[in-house]
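[09:14] KT: can someone run the structure on this one? pasting the chain below
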Amino acid sequence: MQFVDFEQGKGPEGLIVGQTARPTLKPGYVRVRVAAFGVNRADTLQRQGHYPPPPGESDILGLEVAGEVIEVAETVSDWQPGDRVFGLVAGGGYAEEVVVLAAHIMRCPASLSFEQCAGLAEVYLTAFQCLDVIGGVEQGQRALIHAGASGVGLAALQLCRYFGVEAATTASTQEKLTYCEEMGASVCINYKEKDFQDVLKAVWPDGVEFVLDMVGGDYLNKNLSVLKRDGIVVYLAMLAGRYADKLDMAKMLAKRARIQATTLRNRSDDYKSALIQRFSERCLSAFETGELVVNMDTVFAVQDISEAHRRLENNDSVGKFVGRW
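[09:31] RB: done, structure tokens below
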């Protein structure tokens, strides 16, 4: 089968289409013919040599796919060949075929294309995990979502609106902020022009119950400044580098704040299965009604996937990049 190969540590130009053996179907798994796959920042980090796959998982890039079931293991009863599905893989998504745990896929909403479904799972499940499972946000609360025009940011803003949570966000341009507002943000802050903590203290003096941050760096104490007592700051990434500013312990103690980091790729299979089931029950039908949408930026032919990586590394995106076979 064809797959997208890469030379570790090389730039986007090192991505090439090659040939490899089909993955082996194991008990509890299904084989999916991949129609489209999501392109995520984790893929660029793995290509650079900074984010290896969990032990025993495929070295092929790609964490989410959409396509058609073509084979099921004897132990699988929930799926059959011909089903349109999408879901998470721990690796192997940039390939014509992938084997995936039966509990890690969902049925494609009838109104969505394979390309849209390929851009759904990673960002929405990541945002849902942070807001619902970790943060426990509730209707009537407030949240600050940094990097609002990113894939996860846009998913988080929509989920906030869907859950009845008022959201503020940060982004680098007015174009991005306008899009964030369309997706549910009620307070939009250009971080290149204004300090978000100053804006939020003026607009919401009482603060927010939840902060989702992919930036880190000097945002740490500012996040604590706008946090309500007993609130939580969840970290997903470190776009400003691996070291944050000096933690103000007095501020953290006064707020009784929680600071938690999370990832999704290296979670256990059982954790992912439970997360997918909860997301399916709470949110999947909303894609049929249009209450939730997949924020697409560009769909790339597989031969052009290097351009997707290049643009991701330049932060040149509003929504998801997807590759298509």
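[09:33] KT: thanks! The chain has a mean pLDDT of 96.
[09:34] RB: yep, looked fine to me
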